[in-house]
Write a structure and sequence with these properties.
About 20% of the residues lie in helices and about 25% in strands. The chain is of the alpha+beta class and about 90 residues long. The chain has a single domain, classed as Roll (Ubiquitin-like (UB roll)), CATH 3.10.20. The protein has a 5-stranded mixed sheet with strand order 2-1-5-3-4, covered by helices on one side. Helix 1 packs across helix 2. The N and C termini lie far apart (about 40 Å).
Amino acid sequence: MTITLQIPRPLRPECNGAAELHIPAATVREALARLREDHPQLYRSVCDETGAVRRHVNLFVNNDHIRDRDGLETSLAAGDAVHILPAVSGG
C-alpha cells in the first residue's frame, strides 16, 4: 500500500525538491524507516538519533496528530497522507 508523505517547503531541499513522496508503509514508523533509507538528510530533520520525532516537528496522518492516535504505531491505509509540520516560533 502506498501513502503520501507531504514535505514542507523548508525541508524540500533535503529530498531533491520534492513536495511529496509516495512510499509503501503500513505504520508511521515504517514510513519513517523508509525515509531513513531513501532520504537520510530529511529523516535527520524529522527524527533524532534515537528514532524519536524531534520536539519541534509535528506529524499528522490526514487531519490527526499522531500523538492523538497511536504515535509511531499509527496505522496507515492506502491513500493516507502523512504531513510533516515543523513548529513555527518567533516574536
